[in-house]
Structures are given as structure tokens and as C-alpha cells.
Design goal:
The protein starts with a helix and ends in a 23-residue tail after the last strand. By secondary structure, the chain is of the alpha+beta class. Helices cover 17% and strands 46% of the residues. Helix 2 links the parallel strand 2 and strand 3. A five-stranded mixed sheet has the order 2-3-1-9-8, with no helix packed on it. A four-stranded antiparallel sheet has the order 4-5-6-7, with no helix packed on it. It is globular.
């Protein structure tokens, strides 16, 4: 009787180990590190040109349909996180942007963005962004113009480094948030 139980226990353990291996292999796409970059740019009609710190963005800024004569970098932030963990960015003017990378599939990063004005969410979207690409959010009003936010996500190649746990669409050309 004891000899019959040992093969049964062996197959149960083998099944558990096999299932665990499948689950762990499936989680590789969600356990990678992502670095999120946020550039907040004030756009206005003050004829001051484009901030020299935005030189690499000049062609993209000039092509925007907003038609402003001035683009000034107000803040540049970046934070590392893991898929499944949200990072929060305080934008000029007091709004908060939550960015939650969800999954990396080949060269695409699935993520959720939520823009808050105080406790109230103003915008929420889920999207897939190509690795190293930027999303441009236009609005809200800021100083003498409006705030344009570039959101870029860079997925780390290979397994994620150890990162401490975090406690805690707008589409190009859409009207600014009020």
C-alpha cells in the first residue's frame, strides 16, 4: 500500500512543479521593468520659440496641430517600475498622472494612464505603445497657454532588475481638458 502512494505523490508533485513552471514562464511578460519618462511642455503664443532643451523634439513640436509659437520644457521626470505596478507623476499645475504598465508583448507595452485633478479622474485610457515610443497628451490650460505631456515608456531588455515595490487616451489633436 505504501509503495502505491509514493508514485501517486510523485505525480502530484510533478504536476504541481510543471504547473508552477508554466505559470512562471507565462509571467515573464509581466515581470519586466519599464522606465516611464514624462516631459511636461508649456505651449503658448508668446513668440519665444522652442526651448533649446527640446531640440530633439523640434520636428514633432512643429508638426503639432495646436499652432503655438512657444514651447518651453517645464519639467522632465522619469521613474522605473515593473509591469503591474503604478507610478505617479505630479504635473505642473497640480494634476497627477498615474501610469501603470500592464504587460509587454514583443515590442508593445500595454499600459493604463489616469489623469487626476485632485481626487477626481479627468481622463483614463488603456493603450499599447511601441517600446521607446511617445504618446502626446494635449491639455489642460497652463499659464498663458496649455500643457503638453509627452509620455514615453522604455521596457528593459530581458528580466527585470530588482525594484522596490511602489506603495502607492487622449489622442493627438483632441481638445484640451478643461
Amino acid at each position: 500500500m505504501i509503495s502505491h502512494r509514493r508514485p501517486a505523490i510523485f505525480f502530484v508533485l510533478l504536476g504541481i512543479l510543471t504547473f508552477s513552471g508554466i505559470v512562471l514562464a507565462g509571467d515573464k511578460a509581466t515581470s519586466r521593468a519599464v522606465e516611464v519618462h514624462i516631459d511636461s511642455i508649456m505651449a503658448a503664443d508668446t513668440n519665444e520659440g522652442i526651448d533649446t532643451r527640446l531640440a530633439s523634439m523640434t520636428p514633432r513640436l512643429a508638426a503639432l496641430p495646436f499652432g503655438y509659437s512657444t514651447y518651453r520644457l517645464v519639467s522632465r521626470q522619469h521613474k522605473k517600475t515593473m509591469c503591474g505596478r503604478m507610478v505617479a507623476f505630479t504635473l505642473p499645475g497640480g494634476r497627477i498622472l498615474h501610469v501603470s504598465p500592464r504587460r509587454i508583448d514583443r515590442d508593445m507595452i500595454a499600459m493604463e494612464l489616469v489623469l487626476f485633478a485632485g481626487e477626481r479622474p479627468e481622463m483614463s485610457t488603456e493603450l499599447k505603445l511601441p517600446n521607446h515610443a511617445s504618446l502626446i497628451l494635449g491639455g489642460p490650460r497652463y499659464e498663458q497657454g496649455m500643457l503638453i505631456v509627452f509620455v514615453r515608456a522604455d521596457a528593459a531588455d530581458g528580466p527585470a532588475p530588482s525594484i522596490a515595490p511602489n506603495p502607492a487616451t487622449a489622442v493627438l489633436g483632441t481638445p484640451p481638458l478643461q
